[in-house]
Amino acid sequence: MNTAQAMDRMYRYQRYIYDFTRKYYLFGRDTLIQRMDLQPGQQVLEVGCGTGRNLYLLAKRHPQVQFFCLDASQAMLETAANKLKHKTNVRLQQGLAQEVYYRDHFQLQQAFDVVFFSYALSMIPSFRDALHRALDNLKPQGHLYIVDFYDQGGWPTWFRKLLQSWLARFGVQHDPALPAYLQALHEQGHGQLQIDSLGGRYAFIAHFRKSGEA
Ligand SMILES: C[S@@+](CC[C@H](N)C(=O)[O-])C[C@H]1O[C@@H](n2cnc3c(N)ncnc32)[C@H](O)[C@@H]1O
Fold first, then answer.
1. Which of 77, 149, 159, 209 could form a disulfide with 155 if both were Cys (CB 3.0 to 4.6 A apart)?
2. Candidate of 68, 73, 146 to mutate for ligand 1, largest count of ligand atoms within 8 Å of Cβ
């Protein structure tokens, strides 16, 4: 079974209760939306956009910004299309994070101003490939944002284990190497990184500003 089929299978029924149930444990998404400093005319991609919950809020907040929604699951995209049907500034496309390219998938002439992942990288086993592909799709001085699970270092061990085994049922890989990998990209000069921890390291928000001449 390939990734798209696996995601369709995972979300075939869950998508109907997804937004209601996830608000109790996918923390930091609204903080990220508020932090994004978007300008009219910019092009913004969410990789792994799911039901379109984040893009619905963003499109309402920034009607002059063009949003693009990529997801592996056609089933999730159907739900997103329904939610976003009145938002003329959002385009949806099926595809994989590891393969997305702005010209092929969205017929754009220029790379994105902003790319973000919201609780999507922790579902992608090859998160490094997805990250590099996101950077390839960003303009120099573009902004990459990530909100995802951290290491729950401020919580008791029993809570951490319980959370991680429960998340595994939903395909969450929760690789603790992700923040360290972002730090390594920063140290290698690929961009400027800021990571903020939320709720006793339950989750983190990363902001990575890509290097290069704008
Ligand atoms: C936990 S959901 C998050 C949805 C949304 N970003 C949010 O914050 O509510 C993860 C999403 O990533 C998608 N996904 C998983 N692996 C993917 C991949 N390799 N490429 C693109 N999307 C992927 C899933 O289909 C799912 O819709």
1. 159
2. 73
